[in-house]
Structure formats: structure tokens, C-alpha cells
Amino acid sequence: FHNDSGCAVANTVIAVKKGIKMIQGTINGYGERCGNADLCQIIPNLEIKLKKSCLKEDSLKHLTNLSRFVSETANQIANPSQPFVGRNAFTHKGGMHVSGVSKLPKAFEHMDPEIVGNTREILISELSGRKSIILKAKEFGVNLENDMKKASEILNRVQNLEHKGYQFEAADGSFELLVKEVTGVKKKFFKLESFRVLNEKKEDGSMMSEATVKVLIDENRIIETAEGNGPVNALDRALRKAIESCYPALSRITLTDFKVRVLDEKKGTGAVVRVLIESSDGKKSWGTIGVSENIIEASWQALEDSIIYGLMHVEKNK
């Protein structure tokens, strides 16, 4: 079935219920116009909901990885809201909602996400309660079950930052660093003394940015300058020059996405901006955030968190 009217999956499932023995579809529903029937939705509906065996035993648990592999191979952005295999398919963020999921998942989820190789995700937002904080912290090895004071402190920090424009739903990296800072286990790889960014427009119309960073590693003061095709790129290059000799694993960390959003458009050029950076070490990806009236400062916050988070995990996985 083609999906021109948005009914391809439903029509396929009904056809099987009516006795059809062979169906046709594509992984993630990729195809011309509006796409085709999505096998990543059809297969689990048949296997789990209708109890019709159509795969070898234990094959269903590879479905999420297959979906994401095909997205990468086709150079397509994976749909986070895709049923069964999307990153949002089993995501929760409301405080009472998260508390309920932790006690009785079946009351909030139509199935166990592990059956299709997906995972349950807890998001941190202004709707979060202490239970959300505790469950999320447990994901990266911080146990707050017996430390309600720390959990409350983290929750208060999150709520105060949210009021300033921060959003941690897409910035798990920054949230993890916040938790580890409050609990005293955040590693300090370097300390910023200062940075400076210059933008130059040349006679031929081209633009060049130059950044200088001054950092301290232990007792060593390091100053490095680098050029880039923009201020953030120049800052990234200068910081890497300054610390890469001490942390060679930095070469494995790359910035994969950079987003800027104006939070109060009425203030024009004086508006607060939110910067989100996505990074990867080739195996996992993480998001970090910065907020400021100065776009360079917001970018630095997100960049610094990205590098620190990456180094922390690359070193841990050596």
C-alpha cells in the first residue's frame, strides 16, 4: 500500500485480518510521494497485537536498530515520533506520569519497549518532579534514592534554569553535568580564564573569525588562537588546540548539529538566545545547551558542556 491518505499501515493490518497472506512495505515507510506502508509499524502490530508470527524467534528485538540503520544509510533524519521504534515512542516527562511509569509501566505504555529493541526515556523539564530526577540520574550512575536533599536541589536548579530559557529535553549532556556538579562527582578537565572572538570582513567580501582562549589545566596556563568560518567554529578550534595535547581522546568528539533560537523576539537584537549543540564520539550522541543575551556566550556554554561531557565518557570507556 502507498500512504497517500495516511492509511497504509491500517489498511495492511486489516488486510491481514481478512486473510491476506503476503504484504508489501518498506522500512520506515520510505517511498515516493507520501511513502509506503511502514514495516516497522506493521511487523510489531502483527506479531504483538494480532499474535501472528512473521519473523524468526528473537528477531523483533532488532527492529529499532534496523530502522535507525536504514535511516543512516538513506541519509534521512529518523522520525522521533515513529511508533514502536522512534526515540519518543516510550518517552515520559510529566512528574506524576514518570512516577506512575516507574511503579506500573503497563498503565502508561502499550508494550515493553525492549521487545522491539527500543528503550524507555525520561525527559527533564519544568514538569519534572523529584522522581523524574532520581530516575534520570540513575541512568548515568548517580543514586539519589536516599538523598532527597540533593534531588530537591537539582530539581530547584532545573526549574530556575527553565525560567531563564533553558530546556533539558534535548540537552541530556548538560543535565548530567548539572547532576554531577551538585553531587560533587563532576570532573574538571580545564578551567576557562577568558576567551575573545574577533570577526573580520575582508575587502573581497569574505568573513573570517578568530578566537583566543586562555585555560588552566592543573597549574598550567595555556593560550591558543585559531581561525574559523564563524565565531563558534573558531572557539571550538582554539579550545581544541589548547587542551588536545592533554586529552588526545578529544579528537574522537565532533559537533554534529548547532541550533539557535531567539526566546523573546520583541527585544530584537537584545533578545535572549538559546543554543543547542549535538555532538558525537562515533558511538553515541549527546545534546548540550547554553542561554544568554550574548550569542557567543550561549554558544560557549553549550560548547564547553559538550567537550566536558565527551571527555568524561570517552575516558570512562577506555
Please render the helix and strand layout as text.
Layout: H1 8-17, H2 39-49, H3 63-73, E1 91-92, H4 95-103, E2 121-122, H5 130-139, H6 148-164, H7 172-182, E3 191-201, E4 207-217, E5 220-228, H8 231-243, E6 254-262, E7 273-280, E8 285-292, H9 295-316
Helix pairs in contact: 1-2, 4-5, 6-7, 7-9, 8-9
Protein name: Pyruvate carboxyltransferase domain-containing protein
Keywords: Amino-acid biosynthesis, Branched-chain amino acid biosynthesis, Isoleucine biosynthesis, Transferase
Organism: marine sediment metagenome
Structural write-up:
The protein is an alpha+beta fold and 318 residues long. Among the domains are: 8-73, no CATH class; 91-182, no CATH class; 190-246, Double Stranded RNA Binding Domain. The protein is 36% helix and 19% strand. The protein is built from 9 helices and 8 strands. The strands form 3 sheets. The chain has a 3-stranded antiparallel beta sheet. The chain has a 3-stranded antiparallel beta sheet with strand order 6-7-8. Strands 1-2 form a two-stranded parallel ribbon. Strand 1, helix 4 (95-103) and strand 2 form a beta-alpha-beta unit. The longest helix is centred in the last third of the chain and has 22 residues, at 295-316. The chain starts with 7 loop residues before the first helix and ends with a helix.
